Amino acid sequence: MTTPKIEMRGVAKAFGPKEVLRGVDLRVAKGESCVVIGGSGTGKSVTLKCIIGLVSPDRGRIEVDGRTLDSRTRQAFLRQFGMLFQGGALFDSLTVWENVVFRFRHGADRLPRGKARDLAIDKLRRVGLEPGTADLFPAELSGGMQKRVGLARAIATDPAVIFFDEPTTGLDPIMADVINDLIREIVVEMGATAMTITHDMSSVRKIADRVAMLHQGVIQWSGPVTEIDRSENPYVHQFVNGLPKGPIAAIR
Amino acid sequence: MPIITRILDFLAAIGRAAIGLARATGSLAIFAATAVLNIVLPPYFPSEFGRQLIRMGYFSLPVVGLTALFTGGALALQIYSGGSRFNAESVVPSIVAIGVVRELGPVLCGLMVAGRVGASIAAELGSMRVTEQIDALVTLSTSPMKFLVAPRVLAGTLALPVLTGIADIIGVLGGYLVGTGRLGISPGNYIQNTVDFLTAGDIVSSLVKGAVFGFIISVVGCYQGYRSGRGAQGVAQATRNAVVTASILILAANYLLTEVFFSA
């Protein structure tokens, strides 16, 4: 059996008395696009944050390429990593191009200003933005454009692993579809391992190779995206079809 | 409810508050120590430091200058009015100089900058926390303590002594303008009295106070913003806490430093 790119084993996390994750087991193969679905407040973001190191799990193990993530190995992991945040998380005080090539302006792989700007414009073109946007500030962009800039920043270093946190939240259906297409294209083109969290089923169908359903702090079901509509798992069935009745309580 | 239970509840509430205060103090002290460590150890972000230095120092000049000017003038009037009861009008220049340089210059400069810069640091970092910009820095292999906190704390610690020095000069100038323009003191006498009375120790103590206040303002602003709660309310609370905490700490530190410099 090949070593997965990312593996979570029995990861648990509680905030005070609230147990958000109760033992998440998840494997994401190299080059695979895994989408974690689940209702709001089920711990999808916490799952991603545990892998990145923004949240420390109470127990369980997280491995990347078969190596347990600790403070040292996590730094190496983050160097081959990109992430698109839900709200873009662009730095307000920097221009669009400075945001896109942040790593190349401030990190160990620093590039001269001109080269970095050219690289940023290339990445902006890749996500469908005109070079003219490079000198704008994030506050001057629409929500969809901010997502694209966030995506350009996520792929700026051609990372091996990309995370997408609710990539289509707050976008109109047409722009959401454009972003979904872009994500799929980029992930396939770069051969990156992708992990997305969303509750948008159109994103799931566009982006995913594999889907994992998180509910009550554990993965309730996981399988290929092609099987999601045929799944007899009651959680998946209720979620995918948006049914008010089922094991997922409408009010949590 | 039995009286003993009420007493125990009351004691428990005091205990909880004391533990909370001790925890907050410890947490702020650890944050400050981490900030200092991050200032000393590489990597450094000189462009970010420069940006903060201009923002905290240069753009605070108008508010600090105007505050010092009017305070120096008002002080001259007060000393003249109080001193005239004892025929001691001639002490106006020397007391204005001592009052401004030893106390009012650094303290007013600190309080004005706490309101202007401390609040702005807390609001900026708080909104960066809320909009996940601080998390984004981590995913970009950049330590938020190094990129956000260290340049601000260093800039605050270096900018405040300069601002305090300028406030001292403008404060004395305010006293001079009122003393020579309104109170009839001759310009030559005013300057001579001021220069004769001030010592190098007065000026050093003023600048040291400025540096300490700058450190306090920037550390407290960063601490509150960095640990801001979610939502607009969290940012508002962080901003308010930054100004209130920094102001109290400035006044407390001012007393301690005055003890150190002038108790003998």
Shape of chain B: globular
Helix content of chain A: 25-40%
Oligomer state of the chains in this structure: heterodimer
Indicate the radius of gyration of chain B in whole angstroms.
Answer: 22 Å
Portion in helices of chain B = over 70%
Largest interface, with Cβ-Cβ < 8 Å? A-B, 24 and 14 residues
Would you count the extended β strands of chain B for me? 0
> Are there runs of chain A of 5+ residues with pLDDT below 50, and where?
none
Q: Strand count, sense and closure of the main sheet of chain A?
A: 6 strands, mixed
Q: What class would the helix/strand composition of chain B place it in?
A: mainly alpha
Helical run tally of chain A: 9
Radius of gyration of chain A from CA coordinates: 18 Å
Mean pLDDT of chain B: 95
Helix-strand makeup class of chain A:
alpha/beta
Order of helices and strands of chain A: EEEHEEHEHHHHEHEHEEH
Provide an overview of this structure:
The complex is a heterodimer of chains A (252) and B (264). Chain A is of the alpha/beta class and 252 residues long. Helix content of chain A is 35%, strand content 25%. In chain A, strands 6-7-8-3-9-10 form a six-stranded mixed beta sheet, with helices on both faces. In chain A, helix 5 crosses helix 6, helix 6 runs parallel beside helix 7 and helix 7 packs parallel to helix 8. Chain B contains nine helices and no strands. In chain B, helix 2 packs parallel to helix 6. The radius of gyration of chain B is 22 Å and the shape is globular. Chains A and B meet through helix 2, strand 6 and helix 4 of A and helix 5 of B.
